[in-house]
Design a protein that fits this description.
single chain; 384 residues; alpha/beta; five-stranded parallel beta sheet; five-stranded mixed beta sheet; 17% strand; elongated
Length: 384
Amino acid sequence: MKKLSMNTMDDLRPSAKADILLVDDTPDNLRVLSAMLTNRGYEVRKALTGQRAIASVASEAPDLILLDIKMPEMDGYEVCKQLKATPRGREVPIIFVSALDDALDKVRAFAAGGVDYVTKPFQEAEVLSRIEHQLRIQRLQQQLMIQNEELSRSNRELEQFAYVVSHDLQQPLQSVTGFVKLVQLKYGTTLDETAQDYLNRIHETGSRMQRLVQDLLAYSQVGKQSQDLRLVDCNQILHQVRENLQEAIANRGAVLTQDSLPPVQGSESQLIQLFQNLISNAIKFVPEQVIPAIHISAALHKEHWQIGISDNGIGIKPENYQQIFEIFQRVQSSSKYPGTGIGLATCKKIVEQHGGQIWVESEWGQGTTFYFTLPIVSAAELQA
């Protein structure tokens, strides 16, 4: 095998100490690489064979591996494949260092799991730069993982807090609205208009708070129900939603039409909530002088069903498309179109729990369609 040649560069230093494993069957190559990296502050391990390299990683994973290709018994491609198949070696970046400079050799190296390729003889500055680049990427990935874990923990705590607070608020609010009704029933004839107005405002405010509490409870419980998945017929889901919204549909004279809807794997209670939130919104955001016309469509795509709920309402401006799916975000006046700003955030959470996506298409003043996707049920699942 070819010996290594180097051009030194004293001003390149690693940003942090890192443990690097060198794998090469030529001792002179190992000595050159080891001296170069040690002088730059890296901790270095050496392995003369692929088997020793695999054993070293199994004992303790390094931060990075420099791997030769042409070695007896087991070449670098196979070493890389075996390391990538192990829990400890899976995340370790591997840079191939080889005298092979054909494009196909490089393609094989990347296909095996390598992240970079350096051709011998190499420039020291190039190798050090590529090493530091990969270590920097690795550090950023680790930071991102830590931040994601912290964010997940924080979200779980917030959901638990919302659940506890919302649950504990229900009874006091029911007492407030209940006592207001009792006062109106018992003393209503003796109270003047001002007192009646105050009591009505208290009752309306208490009712709004109850709706907010109930929506918060529903939002916080979505993730906790994600394991309750079974085969569900969306036609039956829609039938139940029609019954739940019977009064709202009758009051507005709303006309609901539908395609034949598919069976899906999902949580029945969550899917009822999803359809109910979207359909009740479709009814609510149609002007009073217009009869709500709502259509529920279903289209089969390669890997999912796409469900659409279309209305002839006031529409949504394009700049608000993303905002409406955020919790407590409203784009319409709460006095004209009452609501808590949690319903669509809950819909988004439910759809994502089912492995789908939700989005909106709308024409201002003409109507809106909310689309969401749900996974296709396989033939085996239908027969089970």
